[in-house]
Structure formats: structure tokens, C-alpha cells
Amino acid sequence: MSIVETRNLKKHYGKEPNITKALDGVSLSINKGSFTAIVGTSGSGKTTLLNMLGGLDVPTEGTVTIAERQIQSMSDEQLTIFRRRNIGFVFQSYNLVPILNVYENIMLPLDLDGNGPDKGYMEKIVDLLGLSEKIYNMVNQLSGGQQQRVAIARALTGKPAILLADEPTGNLDSKSSENVMEILKQANLTFGQTIIMITHNEVLAQMADTVIRIEDGRIAESR
Amino acid sequence: MDYTKNNNNGVVYKLAKRGLKSNKGRNIAAVITIALSVWVVLSLVLSVLSVNQINYDLVKDTYQAIIRDVDDEEIRGFEGDSRLYKVGAAYYLDYTQTSDGDIFYMYYNDAMIEALANVVIEGVYPKNEDEILVSQSYLDMTGQNANIGDLIEISVGEIEQSVFKITGVVDDTAWQDNMFYLFFSKPFLERFVGGDTIEYTSYLWLENVHNFTADEAQQLLTQVCEDNGIEAEQISFNSPYFHYIGKSLSSSDLLSFLLIGGLILFAAAIVVYTVFYISVGNKIREYGQLRTLGATKKQIKRIVSYEGMTLTVIGGAAGVLLGWIVGYALRPDGWNWVSTLWATLAVVVFVLIVVWVSVRTPAKLGGSASPIEAGRYSAYTKSTRKAKTKYKKSSPLRIAVLNVVRSPKKAVLTILSLGLCGVLFICAMSLDKNITAKNILRSSSSGFLYGEYKLEVISGENNTFSEVQQLNNPLNEELRQQILAINGVEGIHEWKAIHGTIAGTGQVAMSNQTVNIYGYAPQDEEKLTNALIKGTGDYEELSQNNGLIVCSPGTAKDIYGWEPQLGDTIRLTTLAGNGEYIETMLTVMGITDNTDGFSEIFRMTDSALQKITGTACSDSWEIVIASSNDSAAEIEQHLTTLLQDNPYIQLQTFSATVEERQAELDTGWGMIFILALLLGVFGIVNLINTNSTNMFTRIQEIGILQAVGMTGKQMRISLMSEGLINTFAATLITVAVGFPFGYMACFLVNETITTTVYSIPWQAALLYFSALLIAQLLLTVYDVWTLSKIPVIERVNVAA
Q: CA-based, 20 to 30 A from B678: which of A4, A100, B228, B440?
């Protein structure tokens, strides 16, 4: 069953003749509970695609449908609320909020939504990510790998249907990278979340169920 | 070869220049702040210097001493004394009252006529007995269209209907209204006195007086007099001359400059410090890179300092130009290039020091950038929270609070800057609300303590004032009865005073000085006693012993060079009711702290004044009317009619005096409002700078918050809450510090009013809060609008 669908998705910058086509007619369908890796060279359009899927960027043309709702038809306010309830993000540079401690960062989407945490679920996530010891630390006291694990915990905490990860291991050493990939895989298996991950690393991509290759803003391969 | 001595000024200068080009927002904030502070401080200094210059110009050519009762031989002695530059001799032959004013019949020698200020004389001085120099206003008043060479008929004292030939006309339009002068020749004066010895009043100008200090000049004049057989009691010094000569600034002016200038420059220093602190914080990575490439700490510090000094030169030059324009526009007559240049130099040096100190710490911060740490540094990646903190639910308000406290120094400086403006504003409003003309006049014996109207004895010349007041006082019993008969008049409160000269005796070394001693009635004893610092306020005791009460000994010292102590004795010379000058010893028996409305320097009991002079000594009457009386206009009309033919009584009304005094006060308080406004501009500049740099550095963070689910509404609430926190904190400082300071300011200006009718300016605090709230609201709206133009993902990906 498809949870994410795009139809003829385009993102163009500038005007003819100096037009840059970051995405040029991408149509795809991703099943619920799957682990999808999007690969491609630098500038191929993979991050643009991920931002479109997360409703962080607006397409020039085409549609994005998530959980049977077309996100282009939503207002900015509706989209934000939809995003925090249905989509989790993991960025390459962690993007944690420095004024909050680890637990507050993890709880941020729930707090902003006004919901209390599912304590059992939270404990599972914290245990799974190995953050129990650091839960009340400020984030600037953590290593890069630990910060990325906090970012993943934050993305998982609202039980989003989809987790979008943009080069989640890009800033990490090989051991931490493997660790993060394990966690993502575990989350996929344990909590049944749909994971869409961008990576340069072909080896890490092989851990996904599906690999989509983007070249020049188009899908070159899907396997 | 010593590589540390390489000349690297060029590269430092280039980097500083590039830094200046890349940071226009900071430059504008710093230049505006520096220019405004230099402008206001310099304008203030120049305007006061100009007033002093004008006063100096007025007195610089005037006499330095007056010698009474000098005969022709003594005048000749003075004229032959090489230590004197000019010797004036004057004799008051007579004066008459007319419905249009007073006519003064004078003899002036040539030196005195030459010294007449602000006049143009056509013709020559009178030399023969039947010659006369007349003032133009006299001719106008008497309706005579006479010219030089014409004959006019004048009666002088007992010499009636003499015919005089006009030898000259004095253009006296710049003189006081209602006073008309006629100048006679020496032969006529001799005829007038009828063979008696002529006792002139002599005016002395010292030779090369500008080479002496005030003390030296007075000592020399005393010596000259002594050498010419003049008693010390006959000498009075020209107080205004010695007040303005030899000092361009009084100590109170200097203190005001230091206070006001210090306040402005302190506020400016906060802004300059903050803008540079933030700017350096934002460029710390760049400085780290420079360190990596080999720049020393000292070089980084020099880059920052260069930037600061360059902005100071630009802002300072603009401020100096504006300061000169305003300074000149305010007082073109008092413009003096030498004092202007000195004042400019002083202000500029002061500002340079302030900016240098303000930039020093940010420059050190830049210099301390470590090549390794700087790469990871961001002014906003730091957190002031403890290493381990408990979980608290994140809400827009909490995020706002955390954002404010994450950089406490910056928050404190911004709030302090706004608070300073608020404090000054509250002080100005406190003064405006409490120190009103109405309150002042109702609390001072020189105002309207009791009545709605005041009748005051007046006279244009000091020498005749005593005669008017102590010999022919127009405030007599007949007038009293006429006034009391007016419907609505409830009573008359009389204030007494005498005019004379005082000189020290025993331990008190003071030469003759002119003085007014004011009286007080038995019913004022309690008020005066309450204000006593030492001595007695006992009415009977003071009356019996010719006791003198001195209010504000410090002021007495400034004016008379004598700081009165209990037990000091002075000799008073004044005109008695029998027309003779009498001498009386007065003893200082009480010293007050200048409160309770009795602000005149010397005071004695009414009965002592009457006892000394043998006259009523009435100085002024306050007319008390029924509080429910609605016929004030009729009473005023009655009084005007009653006094219209009496040139020696001036009628003042409470309402008109309030109007006049309020205008003066408004000017003074207006200056403080301008200062508050200036500090307000500094505060807003600081706020805008802090806000814009906050937004610049936090744009990514806000993007992240929105990416993980913060709605636009939540973001607006959060940003608005930050502004509200600033507003509340600044208002808190304003109220907590401003209200006590406002009270103190009022207390310093007028203790009596403050302790009796002070009211807190709540409305001002509300106004300040509202203005700040609106400013914050506008800034938040601008921030939200700016953010809305950048897609969330662009903000997330922006490099802070």
C-alpha cells in the first residue's frame, strides 16, 4: 500500500534560457513501512525531492500525496501541523536546538503539538538509541554521533508515518554511521515507520528495501 | 632579521576596511549613535559657553568697584593714579515721578558718559552750566520735538524753570522702559549743591585688569583706595563683573556637563559596545580563519579597533558639524571660535576614549578567537544553561525566555539601554508634573505664598530704591485701606525688606557689598525654625539682637565671598527713615538649609528691620482674596485703576506669573525630554541592531523549529514574547529606578514642593511601556514578514 506518491514533480529555478531543473518530472510511489534509499550524485536533485516530500519546499509543478492527502492543497499552518504529526526529519547537520537539553529536543514536536509523551514508547526509543545516560545533558556536550541519535529520536517521537533522512551519516565516522543505520533499520522494523533516506554511500543504500537513483532531476533507476 | 617588527599596518588596514564594507548595519548604528552623542553634548556645551560669553561681553568693559561719597580731590587722586585705567564720577541730583515713568537728573563725568552701554550719542557732552544732554526717550515722553542746539526748560530740585541748551541726544532705546535720563554739566552741579562739598559716587576701572585674577584685582582696588585715603566701608565691588571674568565655566555648569554628558556617553557606550560585541561574535569564525592563516591576536584586535575608530571619526565629524550649527543657531551673539575649538576638542577626545573603551572588550574577544574553536563557534550555539537540566515542556513562551537568557550580557545591555531612556523620561515627567510654576510660586516667599496678587515696590536704580522704599514707601496705610475696601479682598500679607550694603567685621573679611535683607512675620517663625540647621529661630531673641538668618551659606559664599558662621558679625549700612545713612551691627544667629520657601539669602525679623530703619520697610504685599470669589477680574481691574498713577508699585498677578514662569520651566524640562528622546533613539538603535543580528544568526534555528512542527502562529507568539520580556524588563527598570530618581530630581530642584505635593508620574510609565511595546510589535511584525519570504528549507540550510 502506497503512503507517498508523487506525480510529475518538477522544481525549476530561474527562467529560460538560464533555467535550472532541480527536479524534472519525478513520479514515484513508496509503500507504507518500507525503507527506501535515494541515491545520486551531488546536484542530482535528491535533496530537493526529499524537501518536496516533507512539505518543506514548494514544487513548480506536480503533486505530492502523503497518506492520501495532497500536501499542496494545504495552507502553511495546516501543512506544519500535518508535518509534525506525520513526518519526522533527520538532517545531515543534526539541526538540534541548542537552548534545549536532549530530552527537550526529543520532545519538541510533541510539546509544540500540545501532546504528552507515550512514556513506554519514549523509553523504547531512548533505550534503542542509547541516550538514557545523556537524557538531561545539553546537546552541545554530545558527540556528533550522539547528536544525530538525538535527531533520530526527535524524528521518531511523534510516531510519524514517514521518516525523512537527508544524509544522516554524512557528518559521522564509519562506526557511528553504521550505528545510525542500524537504528534506522531497527525503527523501521520495530515501529513500522516508512523511512526515506538520502545517501551518497552505495554500501549504506544496500541496507534499504528499495533504492531509487536520481540523475539530472529524473529517476534513472528504481530497484 | 626581526620578523615581529614587520610593518603590517597595510594588511590590517585593508582587512578593517573590508570589515567596514561588509557590515553596513553595524556601521549605521554606530555612526548614528556617535554622531548623535557628539552633537547633543557639543551643542549643550557650546550653548552654555555662548551664554557665558554673552554675559562676559556685557560686563567685560564695566567698572570693577564703586566708591561712595568721594569728593573732587579724591576723584583727582584716582585720576592721577596710574593703576587705574578710568575713573567715573556720578551724582544723582534728583528724580521725579510722572505717570509715564521716572525722570533721573544726573551728573556724569566724561568717563561715565563714555562708558554708557548700548547707546549712541549725537552731539557733545555738556560743559557749561546751561547745557544739557538729554535722552531721546525723554524727548519722546514729553512730546518735545527738540534737536541739538534747541533750548528746553527744566526744573531740577529747588532750581525751577531753568533754560538749557541741548548739546547732545542719547539714543536710549535699549535701556529700561519708563526711565528717562537727563545729564547736566559740572558747573550746573556746583550751582545745584550751592557751595557744599560734592560727594560723588565714583566708578573705578583698573589698568590691565585682565592680567589679574578676581582676588588680585579686588586686593589691588582696595590698595588703590587705601592709598587715596578711602575707607574700606566706602568700597563695593562689581559682583557681576567678578562673577563672569576669569572663568568660562562655573562649577555648577561643569558639574551639569559631566552629569548630562556622562549620561549620554554612557548610553552611547552601551550601544557601541553592543553593536561591536555582536558584530565580532558574528565574525568570530572569520577571525579564527585569519588566526589560522597567521594573524596574531594583536592584529585581530587592531582590525576591530581600526573599525571602531573609523566609525568614530565619521560619526564624530558629523556630530561636530551638527553641534556647531546648533550651537551657533542657539546663540550667534555668543559664538567664540577659541572656546568652540577647545570645547570641540574636549568632547571629541572624550568620545574617542569612550568608543575606544567600548570597543576594547569586543576587540579582545576577536583577538582571542582560537583557530580550532572558532570554526565551531557561533554566537548562538552557546547555552548558558547548566550541563544537566531537568525536562520542561517547550512552549513558544518558554522558547522565548530561553532565547532571551541564552545571551544574558546582550539582553542586559539592550534592556539597560532602553531602561536608561525610561529612567530619564520618568525624571523629566516627574519634574514636569511636580515642579510646576504654580507649585513653585505657592511654595516660595518670593512667589505667591498667600495671595493672588502682589504689589511690589520697584525702582530702576539701586541708589534711589532705598529712598523709594525706606523714605517714601508707596505701600502706605492709605493704599492698604483702599485695597481692603475692594469687594472680595480678604486681607493683605506684607513682606518687608531693606536695601543697603554690608561689610565684614572682626573675623569676617568682606568688603562692602550691596545687599537686600528680607523680613518675616511672627507667623512665619515656625516655618523658618523647621528649616534651621543651626542657631535659633526665636522671633523675640532675633528681634532684640539684630539676628541675621542666613539661608544657604554656600550661595552666600559664591556671591559675597563669605561663608557665614554662627556668631559672625557684619556691619549693615542703610538709609534710615530720617534720611540719614546709619550703621548697624548684625549677628548671624541662624543658618537654614534653604527650604520651606524662604530662599532669599538674608532674613531678619520684621520688627528688627523696622527697629533699624524706623520705617515700615514694606517690600511687597500679597493680596489675599476669598477662595470662592468669582470676581477676580474685577479685583484686578480695581487694583490696576488704583495703581495706574503710581510708578513705584508693580502689580503682579498669580495667573500671569504662572504663565510666564511655566514657559521658562517648559524650556528646561524640554531639554531633559530631548535628552530622554536621544537616549530613546540609542535604545531603539540598540534594539534594532540586536533584533536584526538575532534574526540573522537565528534564522536557521527558527527554520529548524518550523521544520519539526512549530506553526507560524507559535513562531509569532514566541518572537512577540521575546519582545515583551524586553519591554517588561525595561519598564521594570524604568519604574524601579525612574520613580526614586524622579523623586530625587524633584527634591534637588525644590525640596519644599517635593516633600509636600509630590505625585508619581504613572501616566508617563504607561506611555513609555506603550511606546516600547509598539516598537517591539513593529519589530516582530517585520521579523515575521522577513522570515515568511524565505522558505523553511532555505532557512534550515543557511549557515549561521
A: B440
d(CA B692, CA B697): 9
Q: Answer whether A103 touches B (CB < 8 Å).
A: yes
Please report whether residue B189 resides in a domain. yes
- Is the pLDDT at A84 greater than 60? The verdict is yes
Q: What separation in angstroms does the CA of B662 have from each of B268, B447, B532, B658, B708? A: 32, 13, 30, 6, 61
Give yes or no: residues B516 and B599 share one domain: yes
- Residues B191 and B335 grouped into a single domain: no
In this predicted complex, what is the ipTM? 0.80
B471 and B618 together in one domain: yes
Whether B242 is in a domain gets the answer: no
pTM of the model: 0.65
Domain presence at residue B119: no
Total structural domains in chain B? 4
Please name the residue of chain B whose CA is at the shortest distance from the CA of residue A52.
Answer: B793
Q: Within this chain, do residues B90 and B226 fall inside the same structural domain, yes or no?
A: yes
Residue B503 · residue B570 · CB < 8 Å: yes
Q: Indicate yes or no: CB of B388 within 8 angstroms of CB of A158.
A: no
Q: Give yes or no for a contact between B730 and B682, defined as CB atoms under 8 angstroms apart.
A: no
**Domains of chain A by range and CATH?**
2-222 (3.40.50.300)
- In the three-class reduction of DSSP (H, G, I as helix; E, B as strand; rest coil), residue B20 is classed as helix
A98 Cβ under 8 Å from any chain B Cβ: yes
> Do B162 and B197 belong together in one domain?
yes
B381·A80 Cβ contact <8 A: no
Burial (CB count <10 Å: 0-12, 13-18, 19+), residue A22 = buried
B640 domain-assigned: yes
Which domain covers residue B149, as residue numbers?
65-112+131-237
Question: From CA B546, how far away is CA B568, in angstroms rounded?
Answer: 12
Instruction: Report the DSSP beta bridge partners of residue B152.
Output: B164
B688 plus B750 within the same structural domain: yes
Taking residue A53's Cβ as centre, other Cβ atoms within 10 Å add up to 24
Q: What is the pLDDT of residue B488?
A: 84
Identify each DSSP E strand in B460-542 by its residue range: 489-504, 513-520, 532-535
